[in-house]
Amino acid sequence: MSVTVRVPDGFHDLANVFLAVGLYDEVTVAPADTLRVTCSGPDAAQVPLDAGNLAARAAVALAGRYGISPDVHIHIAKDIPVAGGMAGGSADGAAALVACDALWSTGASQDELLAICAELGSDVPFSLIGGAALGVGRGEQLTPIEVGGTFHWVFAVADGGLSTPAVYAEFDRLTAGTRVPEPTASPALLTALRKGDTAALAGALGNDLQAAALSLRPSLADTLAVGTAAGALAALVSGSGPTTAFLAADADTAREIGDALLASGTCRGVRVAVSPAPGATVREPRG
Question: Which of 24, 42, 123, 228 is spaced 20 to 30 A from 83 at the CA atom?
Answer without folding.
Answer: 228
